[in-house]
Each structure stands twice: as C-alpha cells, then as structure tokens.
Predict the structure.
Amino acid sequence: MEALLEVCDLSVVFEREGQGGASGRIGGTHVGLAVDGVSFSLERGKTLCLVGESGCGKTVTALSLLRLLPSPPASISSGRVLFDGEDLTAMSETQLRRIRGNRAGMVFQDPMTSLNPVMRVGDQIGESLRLHRGMTAAQAREAATAMLERVNIPDPALRVRDFPHQMSGGMRQRVMIAVALACSPDLIIADEPTTALDVTVQKQILDLMRGLIEGSGSGLLLITHDLGVVARAADDVAVMYAGRIVEQGLVKGGRGVLESPSHPYTIGLLRSRPGAVPPKARLDAIPGTVPGLWARPDGCTFHPRCPHAFDRCRRETPPLFSLEAGRKSRCWLGE
C-alpha cells in the first residue's frame, strides 16, 4: 500500500548564541541537532507510534512535519516530508495553511495551553470549518456540536458554549481531538494525548482515535512515552533516542518489537515497566538520562547508559541495520 506520510532523512537543528557543545557551529552561532536523520512511513488506516523518554525528540519530530516549530531558533536542515506525495518542506507558508487543520490535524500535548482560554470550545472547533469549508457561523456551531457528540462529550448542545476552564482534563483532551478532526483530515498527529489522564479515560480516547481512522483511509501518528499505549493502539512502532530512531518495526506478531526487542534501549524501556518485575520488586531502571541537545556523546548516543557498550560504540555511530521481519535496529550488536 502507498504511504500516506513518508519522512525521509529528516534533520532539525536549533541555534543559540554563546558557548556550544559538540553538535556543531555555523559562523558565531552554535547548532544543536535535535532530530538526526529520522525516516519512517505511515500507511492509510494504520497507527504508527513514536516512543521514547522525555527529551528524545518525539515532539520536535511531530511539530517539524507540519513546520510548526518557531524559526528561529529551529530549522529543518535536511530531509523531506512527503504527505500524499507532496513535499511539505518545499511548500510556502500559504500552501501549508491549506493543509494544517484541513488535510492534517494536530492534537497537542497540553489541551489547557493549546486551547484559547477566552474562546468558547464550539468556536474553536468551528474555526477551521469556517476557514477551510466556508461554513457560516451557524453551520460551524452545528458541526461543532456534532463533533462534541462524536468524541463522546455529554450534552454537546450545552457544552459547545463552554470555555475550556469549565471542562475536566479528559473533556478538554476530547475537545482537542474534535478540533483536529473537524475537517476529517487524512493525517492525525497526536502528541501524548493520554498524558495525566486516568486509565479509563486513556482507553476511551485511544479507542476513539483508533475507531476514527479504521476504514476511513486516515493515518494516525501517535507520540507517547507509555509502552502500554503502544501495545494497545499501534500497528508499527519507532523507538527514538537522542533525536535518532534506534529501533522500528511491527508492534506485535512473530518478531514484533515489543515481543522481541533488539536494541538495548528498547530492552531497557520494557524492563522498566511495573509489570516486568515481580510484585514488590524494584524496577529495573535505565541508569543516567537522555543527553542534552548540546551534550551528545560521540559514537552511539546510548553508549554511556548501555550495559553492553564496547569500544566501537564509543567511536562510531551505528547505522540502522535491517533485521528479520522488516525490523531495524541501530546497534552494533545487530550487525
């Protein structure tokens, strides 16, 4: 099947003045490489999860797809983002406005800061409908009410007039989903849509988004650090660390990434889950932290935290090796 979204060797840099690290320098400006040669594809009707610890580059990758990062300091230094065959990195801002909120919808990480606090939720949902579909205010209000009902908000005809602060966290997240889905986009990008929500609401939101793309020809790119979400919601998974994809493949089935991980980082993430250890036992946490943007080590970026690191890991950056069943792993042990 032809890919709806194809990301090819995408790199994103951030610039700053002052003392820099080993990432590089352009003139008197220091450059940090936030996303480093990321490639993946998403088919219609499928869900792809980008997973990893906070600070590994997931959100920067997602925002760069629709060029939502502030420039400066951020800029795409190389690569292409092909959306239904069109390169988003080569489009003008005017062309991108026709796609954002229309053919591609974004569910942002924090609905309280993403929703306008002084604007009724119905008006926020209807804004893209008026802009992209030419609806009147009354038509947009009616469509917004229908969207609230679609995302399972009770009494939608009343809640459409609410302000964000009058809703719970789960309801605000549903409003964000309604905003993203208002124009029936082909591509949905959801950045940690279940963060800080209780388990019941998490399941409802994941089931809602999965149900919306199945059979519609849409694709869902889901960003998360929760491997439980990956297991429940995704078809494919790409594990990120320090701006690079270190392992990718199918989630389950045969040699799925979650069932048979190859990269030491993926193995460490899976072992750090509460269900991976006996009751009352200490979690097997990964030592250390993700390196900062201007403090990335040479060689494999994971080697300072890896229990299997050897001399080559400290000197040379491993490529993304192809393994069985279409899986890939960025580790010298997979050579």
Summary: The first strand starts at residue 3 and ends at 16.
